[in-house]
Write a structure and sequence with these properties.
18 helices; 21% strand; alpha+beta; 24 strands; Nucleotidyltransferase, domain 5; single chain; six-stranded mixed sheet; 2 domains; globular
Length: 512
């Protein structure tokens, strides 16, 4: 019997079936667009996404019929919630974390509770990217939809619910709403009361690895699944990615390089809240009991894709497979560090600053600049963005001896070498780089007794492919570049904020 891992991301969904020995039997992928009906808005058509999720499940289950699926689990993006009825009808789109709607409610919340008080309950920095401000926006500006919705479900909750189980949410997902009490491991009565969000509109929080039930018979038939497939509560994609990278104890961090890059260190306790808050870092449950994680994230793959579409769109028609095309572009990059600087603030940034009023910058362009230099500068500076946060964690006693690279960006030898050279630490590429979908499958196996504990599952499923060791000479050059990089944003901060305010004012006037 096989194990099915499903990953629902911001730009696409994947599914893969693995034998109990850890061999991939079948995999499938579908994309979907981000909808931007107004400036500053970003949402997904939840009905279309669910149709694509169904398609990948059915395709993989059909191909794995000789080794039928016995259990499945789901890894998903974090904050986006979908309004649904108790009758399992999707009522509207989900608003993504990069959407700026609801920002005003964060200011209102700050008047009722200090950041220190809030962090003691839900250790996140108050910001517009989470579920809560989107729910409050719907409550005020779409009251008919808000009232009609029986439930607002995160994607992990939604997939489990639509497969026929009760609405349950993992602790890691519940944390992304800003309404979860990390120590009580339940919705916070105080935060619910402060915000006016009813508990009964939210899924019940449970630990990742909880068996939610089985796929409904009718749904199973439609998706090529056998009857009685166990549905295991999964988790936030980066937490599943950590397990899929083979991390089940402290000492390593996973570096997931997808649309966003997210570095996820693992802790065996809740770290000192005062120190974490001072660094602008969150705390969240891992998908494994007794472990916690933090996320340091920002734009990455989205900027490489922007580069591809802006500077190399004419070359794509005859490029063959997408990875072949990226490899060809990478061969245009110079071997040594560039003299270009890129501020990776094209959209709202991640921690520690969560900058919403800036824009991307490429500094140092000349008529002799090649597109290979621009591509490499993007890869360099999206990595430099993380250095200070990682050093702060190390100074707090969080040991990180290596990074495990996953996601589409992990296919790039050049990018992983850049990262090793900048951090001065090894970057390891596993054989299966789709860590979130693999982690979900491992979690399904752990929960249903497919192997002897977590270590047994990891030893079967996670294997190393290549280690990228840092080059000492390039590391010295990047330390010099880091000093200059640190100076750039403070120099431009006020100007970029002014430009962003002017742009939004003009856009608002244009909509009348």
């Amino acid at each position: 019997m096989s194990l099915l891992g499903i990953d629902v991301g911001t730009t696409g969904c994947k599914a893969a079936a693995f034998s109990e020995r850890g061999d991939c039997l079948a995999a499938a992928y579908r994309e979907y667009p981000t909808l931007r009906p107004h400036e500053g808005w970003a949402e997904l058509d939840s009905r279309h996404v669910w149709a694509q999720v169904r398609a990948v499940i059915a395709e993989v289950a059909g191909k794995a019929h000789a080794d039928p699926v016995r259990a499945l689990s789901v890894s998903t993006l974090g904050e986006a919630v979908t309004p649904v009825s108790r009758g399992r009808e999707i009522l509207g789109p989900c608003i993504l974390s990069s959407d700026l709607r609801g920002s005003e409610f964060i200011e209102e919340l700050r008047e009722s509770v200090s950041q220190d008080e809030f962090y003691a309950i839900n250790p996140n920095l108050l910001g517009p990217q989470y579920s809560l401000p989107k729910l409050l926006w719907l409550k005020r500006y779409r009251p008919e939809l808000y009232e009609r919705a029986d439930l607002f479900l995160l994607w992990g909750d939604l997939v489990t619910f639509l497969l026929g189980c009760d609405p349950l949410t993992s602790y890691s997902h519940a944390n992304r709403t800003l309404l979860f009490d990390i120590r009580r491991e339940d919705w916070s009565d105080r935060l619910l009361a402060l915000t006016g969000i009813p508990r009964d509109k939210l899924a019940a929080p449970v630990p990742s690895g909880t068996v939610a039930g089985t796929v409904a018979d009718g749904v199973a038939s439609e998706l090529n699944l056998p009857r009685g497939v166990a549905v295991v509560v999964g988790g936030h994609d980066q937490c599943c990615n950590s397990l899929g990278a083979g991390i089940f104890r402290t000492g390593s961090a996973v570096c997931g390089i997808g649309t966003f890059e997210c570095i996820t260190p693992t802790f065996d306790r809740i770290p000192d809240p005062a120190l974490m808050l001072a660094q602008g870092l969150n705390i969240e449950h891992h998908v494994l009991p007794g472990l916690f994680v933090s996320f340091i994230y920002n734009q990455a793959g989205s900027l490489v894709r922007w580069f591809r579409d802006t500077f190399a769109s004419a070359d794509q028609a005859n490029a063959g497979a997408p990875q072949d095309f990226y490899n060809r572009l990478s061969r245009e990059m110079p071997p040594e560090p560039t003299r270009l600087f890129v501020l990776p603030y094209f959209e709202i940034t991640g921690p520690p600053s969560f900058v919403v009023d800036a824009s991307g910058v490429i500094l140092g362009l000349k008529t002799s600049t090649t597109r290979g230099e621009i591509l490499k500068a993007i890869m360099e500076c999206t990595t430099l963005y993380f250095v200070d946060s990682i050093r702060a964690l190390q100074e707090m006693g969080m040991d990180m001896s290596e990074f495990i690279a996953t996601g589409g960006g992990a296919r790039s030898d050049q990018w992983l070498q850049i990262k090793a050279d900048i951090f001065g630490l090894p970057f390891v590429r596993p054989r299966v780089i789709e860590g979130s979908v693999l982690g979900a499958a491992v979690l399904a196996g752990i929960a249903t007794g497919a192997f002897e504990g977590t270590a047994g599952g990891v030893s079967r499923f996670v294997r190393r492919d290549r280690v990228f060791e840092p080059d000492a000479a390039r590391h010295r050059l990047y330390r010099e570049k880091l000093e200059e990089y640190r100076r750039l944003f403070p120099l431009l901060r006020d100007f970029l904020a002014h430009q962003e305010r002017a742009k939004r004012s003009a856009d608002s006037s244009g909509r009348g």
